Task: structure prediction
Amino acid sequence: TGNVWKLRFTPNETGNWSYTYSWTDGTLGGSGTFNVVEGSLSGPLQIASDKTWYFKTARGNAFDARGYSLHQYLEGKYGRSVFTQVAIDDLKDKINTKVADRGYNLLMVLWPMQTDSAGNHWWLHTGSVRDFSRFDIRVWKRIEQVLETAKNRNVHVFPFAGLVDQESARPNDTELGKFLRYYAARLGVYPNHFGHSVTWEYQDIMGHSDATNIMTPLQNYLNNLPTPPLLSVHDHSNNSFTGWLDFSMRQLQSRSVFDGNIHGGGIQGGVGSAFTEMPIIGSEDIWEYQSGDFGQPRNGTEVRRGAWGVMMAGVMPIYNETGLSDSGAPAGGRSNFSGQGQPEVRRMFDFFYSKTRYRQYQKLNSLVSSASRQIA
Result:
């Protein structure tokens, strides 16, 4: 506001830090110091050095991923709805009661889309007309409330989608560049925020080079941070993405232990060979829909079977207990939290992380036979 400038920074070492600043118009700059003390947060996720299928915390500890989704709860259909404060308050409540209180530590959400609809999005707008010269700061502040709530509970957040929309005109390169720079400066610094996927099913609207042309500038901005956040793209890990992709999101609807028992596949493009030894989040493997939409599990038994197959394949699953036919949450989102598989998923995580040496698992593809229904 006015002549007040703010810079966000997440230090990765304790002790005294110093800084200097200068201005391009010749205004007198300055310097200062601040002291960093030990805190309780786990810090940004990184790829584990002992087993690159998984994450570790910035402290070097194994991150036992317990994945849960609220990506349909607030925004209804893929981020095209309203981010009211009432809805944000309710989402924050769900992060506490449905996620953190039940032991989940990895949360999938949706951020606003670059949309022409009358809903809230990153830019100021009048009706359906966006003003690409100014951001809607109210929306950014509401997103920050979500990240703060999750951070305070040591929950790591990654967006299912949120940078561009599929069905609306996107900003031009200049406007998109401005957005990515501001996005990185304002939201990239959160130690629990990572992923930053382009959009859902991005390959429906753009090619691999288009995705790279969006994610590479974002990566360049984020690389200025002491511990840059990991990047991904929804359900398509092409080998040409090796310059910026850190982990894969994928979908392979899993109703049985065999459905999810692959490490290098999926649908909509799957996982390229360059990423089969990197972390993979099964972002659409065990969504429980009572109607069985899109081949997803229909009950607790199918969720349990599918979840075990995903975990045994070295993939980190995300459980979703809301269905497309269940509406009533803020902004037209999905409000059914009666998934029968939710206790099963929690028991599975408890067993794997307390009773097995899951990080020592190896792929035994030569011993796997789909015909004889064997798994490894």
The chain has a mean pLDDT of 86. The first strand starts at residue 15 and ends at 21. The two ends are 58 Å apart (CA to CA).
